[in-house]
């Protein structure tokens, strides 16, 4: 099939728009990923503390997670993971990412959720090993 005239022009326009959209999405994703990376600590003493904290098992308040049923624990983990995914998706939006205040707020929320998620996953894994 040979395409010419206005149809060809329209096809080329859609092809160009698709390429531009893909480039924008790639740029937004790269920007969001780089925003999520935190720079390593600068001082050697801070590096040691950072490494030590990273290797420690998550701390929990005595009995706080023991009181949760496994089902409630799994529901809380799922809720947090869904919100983190929503934040990640929002950060890929150029309008959100280019808004410094909004992206900083979302990044703080994501960090807090990650810190909340870690001990929950640790407790879930502990229970799974016991079974």
Helix-strand blueprint:
Blueprint (H helix, E strand, L loop, with lengths): L5 H31 L7 H12 L14 H22 L2 H5 L1 H31 L1
Helix pairs in contact: 3-5
Percent helix, as a range, is over 70%
Helical/strand content category: mainly alpha
Count of individual helical segments: 5
Q: If you average the pLDDT, what whole number results?
A: 76
N→C terminal distance? 64 Å
Count of DSSP E strands? 0
Instruction: Work out the radius of gyration.
Output: 22 Å
Shape call: elongated
Q: How many separate domains make up the residues?
A: 1
Stretches with pLDDT under 50, minimum 5 residues: none
Biggest sheet, in brief?
A: none
Secondary-structure element order, N to C: HHHHH
- Binned strand content: under 5%
How does this structure look, described?
The chain is mainly α and 131 residues long. The protein has one domain (6-38, 63-130). Helix content is 77%, strand content 0%. The protein is built from five helices and no strands. The chain has helices at 6-36, 44-55, 70-91, 94-98, 100-130. Helix 3 packs antiparallel against helix 5. It is elongated and about 70 Å long. The termini are far apart.
């Amino acid at each position: 099939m040979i395409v010419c005239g206005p149809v060809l022009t329209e096809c080329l326009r859609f092809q160009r728009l698709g390429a531009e959209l893909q480039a924008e999405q790639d740029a937004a994703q790269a920007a969001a990923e780089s925003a999520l990376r935190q720079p390593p600590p600068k001082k050697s003493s801070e590096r040691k503390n950072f490494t030590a904290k990273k290797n420690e098992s998550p701390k929990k308040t005595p009995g706080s997670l023991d009181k949760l049923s496994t089902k409630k624990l799994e529901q809380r983990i799922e809720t947090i993971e869904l919100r983190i995914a929503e934040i990640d998706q929002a950060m890929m939006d150029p309008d959100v990412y280019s808004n410094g205040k909004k992206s900083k707020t979302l990044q703080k929320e994501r960090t807090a959720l990650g810190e909340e998620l870690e001990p929950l996953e640790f407790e879930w894994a502990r229970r799974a090993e016991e079974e």
